[in-house]
Design brief:
This is DUF3644 domain-containing protein. It holds the Pfam family DUF3644. InterPro entries: DUF3644. The protein is mainly alpha-helical. The chain folds into four domains: 72 residues, no CATH class; 181 residues, no CATH class; 35 residues, no CATH class; 72 residues, no CATH class. The protein has 16 helices and five strands. It has a three-stranded antiparallel sheet with strand order 1-2-3, with no helix packed on it. Helix 3 packs across helix 4 and helix 7 crosses helix 9. The N and C termini lie far apart (64 Å).
């Protein structure tokens, strides 16, 4: 494939030798320095601000705000004393001020510099708002479309930051389906299956009337939201979390036992069953029960006074959980609940305790506490799920934070 702009092709995909954003950005007025010194353009802006009557400290505050590195105050004084320094035009100064004020104080994002992330977060927020809006009549289609837009933007941003293809050879941007096919895609199987099913759902329900059956895919959508939250935080930082914007939806009516029973017993119409066959095509029962694929909540009745009739969240391993009848579904072990490989566990224990701890010590620990079976076990998946998870796909074990903490507590007690 060729062309001066490109470095190489990967199947039907293409990685530009320099990102399109970088080429575009260098032509803009808003390039910021990454050191305490000022760039040539920033010096012009500083001179323009000073000529407009700005004080040194106010110029310093504006220039340093949301900049990769804050500016040394002496640099502002140098520009002020330099009679030969040219000044930016009034228009350039105003555009620069608008750029600096475009950053979100909470996330640190600007639509000028982080357009994909800004659009991605807004699309996912819209997906949730539309689905939760009681006046919306075609929720499934709207959520699927907006969620795919959100995931597409964030996937392309991930590729751009990790030197992966962001374009096809025809010049169009990669799709979410393309990203899911990359061997470098960091998403676990359950998350990929969830997104593939939502893509299938979008294709299946597009321009169809579904009536009241939008709720049929609620568990898929809930898992999609949780997966998105986990991905954006892990890859781009805690400040981009959407958690603060999420809450339980209020409603004007309760759900009676009779209504709930009717929902359970109701048969789906043939056209909805047909859509489901497309959405869940090729998935096993194990894959469909993965919490990364579908997230379910179980409700039970419990006697309670009105003053205490509210939602409570209790970890399933807490003592109180044994006496509480209304519990959010217990998490099924996965690579998200058990993220550590054996060598990572060893390093974490050494780091947190400051004491010696080897792979041999780790092996002796899981054997003694029967956390997992030995290598020749007939069924390798029989583990103590609070501590250890067996990944059948990769035929490997991973461990939970609770296991790391248990080992740390044990090591701390040793002489």
């Amino acid at each position: 494939m060729a062309g001066a702009a490109g470095s190489f092709g990967v199947n039907n995909y293409f990685i530009p030798s320099r990102s399109l954003e970088a080429v575009w950005w260098e032509r803009q007025l808003f390039a910021q320095g990454r050191r305490g010194s000022l760039t040539a353009h920033e010096r012009k802006i500083v001179k323009g601000l000073l000529n407009s009557g700005w004080r040194n400290q106010d110029v310093l505050t504006l220039i340093s705000g949301n900049r990769p590195a804050t500016v040394n105050p002496a640099r502002i004084a140098e520009v002020k004393a330099d009679d030969e320094q040219s000044a930016a035009s009034d228009r350039e100064v105003q555009e620069y001020i608008e750029f600096k004020r475009s950053f979100d104080n909470y996330t640190g994002l600007s639509p000028y510099t982080d357009e994909r992330l800004v659009r991605s977060r807004e699309a996912m927020q819209l997906a949730v708002h539309v689905y939760n809006n009681p006046s919306t009549n075609f929720r499934a289609e709207c959520f699927a479309v907006l969620a795919i837009i959100a995931w597409t933007y964030i996937s392309i941003e991930y590729c751009a930051r990790n030197n992966l293809p962001i374009e096809r050879q025809d010049g169009n941007a990669i799709s979410l389906a393309d990203f899911l096919k990359f061997k470098e895609c960091p998403l676990v199987e359950g998350v990929r299956n969830n997104l593939k099913s939502i893509i299938n759902l979008r294709n299946s329900v597009e321009h169809r009337t579904l009536g009241k059956y939008d709720r049929e895919w609620l568990s898929l959508f809930q898992a999609c939201c949780i997966n998105y939250e986990n991905f954006i935080v892990s890859q781009f930082g805690e400040r981009l979390s959407l958690r603060r914007d999420l809450a339980f939806a209020l409603q004007f009516s309760g759900l009676s036992l009779h209504q709930a029973q009717g929902m359970i017993e109701a048969e789906l119409p043939q056209e909805i069953e047909a859509i489901n066959s497309e959405v869940y095509q090729g998935l096993s029962e194990t894959q469909m029960s993965d919490p990364d694929f579908q997230f379910s909540v179980v409700y039970t009745t419990v006697a309670s006074s009105k003053s205490k009739a509210n939602f409570r969240f209790i970890s399933s391993d807490e003592a109180e959980a044994e006496t509480v009848a209304n519990i959010l579904v217990k998490n099924k072990p996965s690579t998200q609940t058990h993220p550590y490989r054996a060598n990572q566990v060893v390093e974490l224990v050494k780091e947190r305790t400051g004491k010696k701890f080897s792979s041999h010590d780790h092996t002796q620990a899981w054997k003694r506490l029967k956390v997992r079976p030995s290598g020749d076990a007939e069924d390798p998946s029989v583990t103590k799920q609070d501590y250890c998870f067996y990944n059948a796909t990769f035929k490997s074990y991973s461990y939970s934070e609770a296991w790391v903490q248990k080992l740390c507590d044990f090591v701390e007690l040793q002489d």
